[in-house]
């Protein structure tokens, strides 16, 4: 393993970078994190060269070869480092995991963003309802299991937990508590954050909430 | 192979269903197509039961077990029927294929829809520019190769070709010809349509253009 040269182009507040860091930690892959300092005004040449289409973090560099897009990176990690698999073994269970991965990728972050970036109260309420409806489906598929795929923390858990540093900001600006609506899902967050691979990879939610507050001021929302 | 019971819940105009049909044909998997007749007003009970989250076609039923979302279905087909692989063998090339799959999935269909569903001329022009910019990246990654992964028609080809029945409608309402901008990409479309697995799976573009015209009338656009 020591022979692999692994670098992660990252940004401290990006939930998509955080999930890749959790995956790297779960798979015990040593890596160097290279932080972008100003994505808005001054993207690094390395980032633009490594991800010329989207010019976004995260990008994984494996022996210099770039892999972009967080879910794609995590799938790649699972294929290139087969030990400690994140995806289930059987094709059907894999398809279930990918279905929920896609659901999370398309829905959770934009729905959360709509909560804190809305101006009018009715827009905030609509955004909150939408976010909670998305959570309802995730709570439903989690059910009484410890983790999304059963007993072990895996692919879907990583994709969702990476986004949860932002949840307290959604709760603050939407004026709700996830645990009042979905106690099982809230318990899953607590259970997952108790893992070192998670708590050491994710940015402190308080820091994210301050960051969101700063952006709201910038957008003239507070 | 004959032992597998494979059904596809489908709709004749859906480009996402068409791509799954191409994949089934490429992999020589016999299946029964079950057509939805009125997705707008009367979804079948089987569809709602099989895909309760999105309630959308396509859904594959393999021995009764549902797999939803076209890209997920095609990945599943490639894993459950390993003969005639669609995805490249090596992890890095797989990650490249998934990167472009994701790009196509997120961008092409909504960009095309914006062309024919826009009312004002400046909106149509903006939608056309956006569509052509997306095509520029796809043309760039295709380059001088016959197919996206090189010599053989595979995963990325299937995902994109499935959407091309709609392209003549985009060209008509956007008043452009793809081949004037990207002759290599246009040649790839012609080359791919020459395959029986494609031409027998995709709906005739003329039928799609008539369908689009009908929707435009319904939306008060013509």
Automatic annotation (TrEMBL), chains A, B:
Q: Which PANTHER family match?
A: GLUTATHIONE S-TRANSFERASE, GST, SUPERFAMILY, GST DOMAIN CONTAINING, GLUTATHIONE TRANSFERASE
**Biological process GO terms, please?**
glutathione metabolic process
Kindly indicate whether the keyword Transferase belongs to this entry.
yes
Q: What is this protein called?
A: glutathione transferase
> Which stretches are transmembrane?
none
**Start and end of every GST C-terminal domain?**
90-211
Enumerate the spans annotated as GST N-terminal domain: 4-85
InterPro entries in UniProt? Glutathione-S-Trfase_C-like, Glutathione-S-Trfase_C_sf, Glutathione_S-Trfase, Glutathione_S-Trfase_N, GST_C, GST_C_Tau, Omega/Tau-like, Thioredoxin-like_sf
The answer on whether this UniProt entry bears the keyword Transferase reads yes
Q: Which family does it belong to?
A: Belongs to the GST superfamily.
One GO cellular component term: cytoplasm
Q: Name one GO molecular function term.
A: glutathione transferase activity
Q: Which CDD domains match?
A: GST_C_Tau (cd03185), GST_N_Tau (cd03058)
* A Pfam match: GST_N
Top-level taxon of the source organism = Eukaryota
Q: Reaction(s) catalyzed by this protein?
A: RX + glutathione = an S-substituted glutathione + a halide anion + H(+)
Q: What is its EC number?
A: 2.5.1.18
UniProt keywords, alphabetically: Transferase
UniProt xrefs under Gene3D superfamilies: 1.20.1050.10, Glutaredoxin
What is the species listed in this Swiss-Prot or TrEMBL entry? Answer: Deinandra increscens subsp. villosa
């Amino acid at each position: 393993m020591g022979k692999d040269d692994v670098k992660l182009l990252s940004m401290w507040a990006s939930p998509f970078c955080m999930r890749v860091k959790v995956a790297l930690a779960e798979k015990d892959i040593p890596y160097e994190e290279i932080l972008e300092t100003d994505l808005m005004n001054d993207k690094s040449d390395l980032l633009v060269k490594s991800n010329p289409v989207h010019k976004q973090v995260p990008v994984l560099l494996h022996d210099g070869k770039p892999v972009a897009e967080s879910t794609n990176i995590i799938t790649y990690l699972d294929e290139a480092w087969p030990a400690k698999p994140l995806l289930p073994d059987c094709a059907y269970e894999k398809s279930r995991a990918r279905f929920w991965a896609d659901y999370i990728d398309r829905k959770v972050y934009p729905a959360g963003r709509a909560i804190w970036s809305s101006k009018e109260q009715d827009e905030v309420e609509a955004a909150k309802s939408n976010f909670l409806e998305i959570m309802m489906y995730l709570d439903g598929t989690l059910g009484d299991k410890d983790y999304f795929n059963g007993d072990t923390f895996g692919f879907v858990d990583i994709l969702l937990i990476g986004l949860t540093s932002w949840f307290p900001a959604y709760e603050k600006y939407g004026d709700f508590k996830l645990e009042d609506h979905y106690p099982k899902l809230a318990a899953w967050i607590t259970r997952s954050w108790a893992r070192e691979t998670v708590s050491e990879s994710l940015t402190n939610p308080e820091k994210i909430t301050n960051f969101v507050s700063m952006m709201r001021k910038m957008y003239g929302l507070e």
